[in-house]
Amino acid sequence: MGLKEKLAQKIVEHRPRTTRLLKEFGDVKLGEVTIEQCIGGARDVKCLVTDISYLDPMEGIRFRGRTIPEVMAALPKPAGKDFPYVEAFWYLLLTGDVPTMAETMEIVEDFKKRNKVPTYVYDVIKALPKESHPMVMFSTAILAMQKESKFAKFYEEGFNKLSAWDTMYEDSSDLLARLPEIAAFIYRYKYKGGNIIANPNSDMGTNFAKMMGIDAPYDDVARMYFILHSDHESGNASAHTTHLVASTLSDAYYSLSAGMDALAGPLHGLANQEVLRWLQDVITKLDGVEPTEELMKKFVLETLDSGAVIPGFGHAVLRKTDPRYQSQREFCEKHLPNDKIFKYVDMLYRVVPDILLAKGKAKNPWPNVDAQSGVIQWFYGITEYDFYTVMFGVGRAIGVLANITWDRGLGYALERPKSLTTAMLEDVAKKG
């Protein structure tokens, strides 16, 4: 049974669960909303549904119930590689099942048939000012392809709620297959003098590495990076934006482009480059000397005492080291143990948590995914900070496209929260 047939079966089996919850238990309360949550960005308000991923405070992100180490161990890998096929991960997110190698290779072959980017997309990118941010180019390229949407044509021909997931799946698969080439084109066009490298038409990780012009094991970096950044529940800004726009019955092109615009915000997708920039500044301040535990403790204490923060540490939900950080750390220990920046990252990992705990600075004093993802990209020659969010976007597309395919499969409604005025909140506060 192919991926699409398996997904159809899963959707049909799942629908009665959603229908029963709405019909028999629709009045059951999940919790109360406070004024702080109302004003403070709806933090921790339980009002979204996704089975794709869940952020466990103690285990980190779970993809279809599996922790990151479990995902990495279970999914098929290319021969001699440490990280799974991205295509196998796509199968897992859509179905909840671990694909066989044969099922994985079916998707690899399917993506090869889908991955040709229309020529006009490159014309659109080239028509933008060369100094445009790469995320502007990326989002614009996605939106430019909207004319290819099978879902939009399906809607025009007569919308059927029960089969709407089919063309959303088709659009999502087309997009996902093309994004690595679009991202690599933007990089080579903007930063490498337009020296474009043709798509080798292999798996996603290999394709991206070769089109970027970077030798192995960067193909494994791509697989790891795309999987780790794919999804983080549905309430994060890029995932929620994609879901919100798709709830209007916009197609995957409109929805993903909007999600990428959210990802481009400084409070969302820029943290990895901010951490790297801070690390390089630390090395400069310390004259590039070999970091010792004593030296780093002194620097961290001085930084905190000055009122500054140590970026890359802490998380709103997690209460342990981010498993996404741990996965990247293991890669660094294997492939770049003597890299100067990684040595500083490693020493920060050893000293910062205890200092933050002692000072009561954070509920979670351990490093998050951003603490070293930029370090790896820099090591392999991608020194252009602004491009990091584009790579983040390729990975994030996997999760959000899986989510909106299921949104249509289960017929989720148009999202429309209710707003209150400040005066209304003040009245509630008085009564409370």
Description:
By secondary structure, the protein is mostly helical. The protein has a domain at 271-379: Cytochrome p450-Terp, domain 2. The chain is built from 20 helices and two strands. It has helices spanning 3-25, 35-39, 68-74, 86-95, 101-114, 119-127, 134-144, 150-158, 164-191, 204-212, 218-228, 237-246, 252-263, 271-285, 293-305, 323-335, 340-359, 373-379, 388-409, 422-431; strands at residues 53-56, 60-63. Strands 1-2 form a two-stranded antiparallel ribbon. A hairpin with a 3-residue loop joins strand 1 (53-56) and strand 2 (60-63). Helix 11 (218-228) packs antiparallel against helix 16. The protein is globular. The mean pLDDT is 94.
In the CATH scheme, the class of the domain at 271-379 would be Mainly Alpha
Number of strands: 2
What percentage of the residues does DSSP assign to strands (E)?
under 5%
Distance between the termini: 57 Å
Q: Please provide the ordered H/E string of secondary-structure elements.
A: HHEEHHHHHHHHHHHHHHHHHH
| Poorly predicted sequence stretches spanning 5 or more consecutive residues | none
What form results from the Cα inertia axes?
globular
Tell me the CATH superfamily of the domain at 271-379.
Cytochrome P450-Terp, domain 2
| Overall residue-averaged pLDDT value | 94
Q: What structural category arises from helix and sheet content?
A: mainly alpha
Proportion in helices? 55-70%
Main beta-sheet annotation: 2 strands, antiparallel
CATH architecture of the domain at 271-379: Orthogonal Bundle
